[in-house]
């Protein structure tokens, strides 16, 4: 069983990029943003309140997925949060008292393809449903 927590993180910026502090996902104590690499941030802790709430709802399976095939964005563009800029997504499922994150990938909202190969070594992760809910809320 894996652990999940949220921890404040500052975006590493270059040039004219916008400084951004966001809540990063730590899985078993490791920053998931460092594992997926690239310039991404969760929508948690910095984005407009409505989108922040929707992101929490998607992680808790209370909101519909924002990509086809029940895929949910977990990291988005840290400049604007637009899925068209590309996002790291995952399938999140409930199985009894477990929440399972599997099939990490990169996608956007205008191509049908989900790029899974670069992320095939990540996950799957199983979380106790109560611990998952407590961490995400």
Offer a concise description of the structure.
With 137 residues, the chain is an alpha+beta fold.
How would you describe this structure to a colleague?
The protein has 137 residues and is of the alpha+beta class. It has one domain (4-136). The chain is 18% helix and 32% strand. The chain has helices at residues 32-36, 49-59, 129-136; strands at residues 4-10, 21-27, 30-31, 71-75, 87-95, 98-107, 125-128. A four-stranded antiparallel β-sheet has the order 4-5-6-7. The radius of gyration is 14 Å and the shape is globular. The model has no long low-confidence stretch (mean pLDDT 93).
For the largest beta-sheet, the strand count, sense and barrel status come to: 4 strands, antiparallel
Strand order in space, largest sheet: 4-5-6-7
User: Could you tell me the mean pLDDT?
Assistant: 93
Shape: globular
How are helices and strands ordered from N to C? EEEHHEEEEH
Strand content: 25-35%
Which oligomeric form is depicted?
single chain
The radius of gyration over CA amounts to 14 Å
The tally of domains stands at 1
Structural class estimated from helices and strands:
alpha+beta
Straight-line N-to-C gap? 20 Å
Number of helical regions: 3
Which terms would index this structure?
137 residues; alpha+beta; four-stranded antiparallel β-sheet; three-stranded antiparallel β-sheet; 3 helices
